[in-house]
User: Fold this.
Amino acid sequence: METVRNALKFAGLTERESDVYLLLGKRSFLTGVEVSKILNMNKAQAYTILTKLQEKRMIEATVGTPTRYCPIDIAVALDEIIRVKRLEADSIAGQRDELLAFWRRMQPAPSASSQERYATLPTRRAFQSKILDMINTGKHEIQLVLTTGEVIQADNAGVFEALKQKLMTQPDFRAMILAPILTENKSTVKTAVKTTKNKKLEWRHADIDSMNLSPLVMSDGEQVCIIPGNLPGDSSATAALWTNGNLVTKMCSVLFAELWRGKLPAEQRIREIETRNPSTINELIDDPTDARRRFVNIIRNAKREVTHLLPSKCFLEDEELRSFWKMPVKGVSVRAMVPHGAKLRTGKRPPEHWAFKDPNVNYLAISAIDRCHVFKFNVPTENADTGGSDYFRGMLYTNDPKQVLPICQMLDGLWDRAEDMPYNKRPTRR
Assistant:
């Protein structure tokens, strides 16, 4: 049946016309009223369709009252359609040269400006798809300037894997990445740099977050994609900009060259992180039990404030954190940023020193305690129905001020821009 419908569609019949024709194929000599009742359409629509099918020589009408309709044999009908289509194709082919000549006379003289194009990419999915396309179609090089958040998004979208494949299959291609190299993304950078040879992929460390720069991706110095600030999920109205405009690409090329000059190569930055003063800790804890124990011990001793950024409230309902609502003790302000739609299965009202907001960020799980300790948790897959324990697998912990303070500033900014949620009063920031 589906094959027949596709053939009728190719023959020029609409879906409703196909319905009527196939009905008449099963039950010939129906009136227009009967057709309308069987197919649940109004009489006017039924008679209009029957008239069009007659014009297309797909059905015939009887003489007399009431008029009844029956289908023309499908073999005869298809032969007629093929004949008409061939006549139409021959007619177009005969006029081809004349049409092309007319079109070329109508076109303006080519100029540099007429080749420039600008397009908006309204969603993150569109932006990431454009980056992958720029990588796949690039001829010589691609340059990326990324914030910490964009490094995470690019890794999740497979951008670095696409670069790896491109560099393996195109020997003369190179990639240059300028982005922060931190404890939490050190392994990603290390893997990306190690899997390429002969410096085909160069990554240099730059604190793009503190520079208030827009992330950008540039291919061959001929096209550029710019994000005006963070680009949230697909529901966001924020748009990225793509262009091959000569002025914009030249400006971005000059900017990238300035930023690139003198920045620390990835190998040196990684060595710097790995040989840091032992009084500071940057640790990846694989065992969820050990990770949870570390978290509980530090949050239990909080003195001033705690900030949580979580993609769901499952974390707050972890079976092994039953006393979570009592930690830290009253008097320590707690800010929890979680999705607006999530509801606590416990049904309990949070303590008065807790406040909730929706940050419209769903790819990070971070807790900051007293601006001295930061925990970065694993984020389970979007559709996974998991509890809080999965957050502790592969948890990152740091007390390094160079890492902690920028993260706390980021959390402050997110909190100030986040949407208010019910429950209790906003705590006073200390």
In short: Residues 374 and 412 are 14 Å apart (CA to CA). Residues 230-237, 424-430 have pLDDT under 50 and may be disordered. The first strand starts at residue 30 and ends at 31.
